Prior knowledge:
Elements: H1 14-20, H2 26-30, E1 36-38, H3 49-62, E2 67-70, H4 75-86, E3 90-96, E4 103-108, E5 115-117, E6 123-124, H5 129-136, E7 144-149, E8 152-155, H6 156-162, E9 166-172
Parallel strand pairs: 1-2
Antiparallel strand pairs: 2-4, 3-4, 5-9, 6-9, 7-8, 7-9
Amino acid sequence: MENPTKSAKGVEPVEDILQSITLVTAEDALGSMQKSWVSGSTDKMMNDILASALSNIFNAEKVGKEFCIVQPTSKIVKKVLEILQDNHYLGDIKYIENNKGGIFKVNLIGKINKVGVIKPRFSLQNDNFEKFEKRFLPAQDFGLLIISTSKGIMTHYEAKGNKIGGKLLAYCY
Length: 173
């Protein structure tokens, strides 16, 4: 004999399904109403810490958050964040030690349209910046390329001024 609570095809009636659904308020679904963005879990193996950091900043900026937590950290991430801050793309940056490599709390000011890493890390000489500016930036003198040179990490404007080349790391506009 058939189960009276099951329909002919073995599917539960709609009333039983509706009783099993729990209602979730908007506040529960969003977590706390604090305007922050915390980067992904550090349990996974990270291959490119800079790419992860810039991706988290871009995503937080895109959804309108006031600040972003960036972890894990490195010296390169710190220098790139300082360059973005010096060029008025980011607000205050605070380093917080947590005995796991530390985290950066980055205040976002809404000035970033796009930010990302450049892979593969192209080598460029002091006379062919224009080729990569056309490729990664939307217009001339709009945005910046971040380059790792023998004199340290700097923007492409500084590298042009010093007449040195290097490897492309990231772009921002």
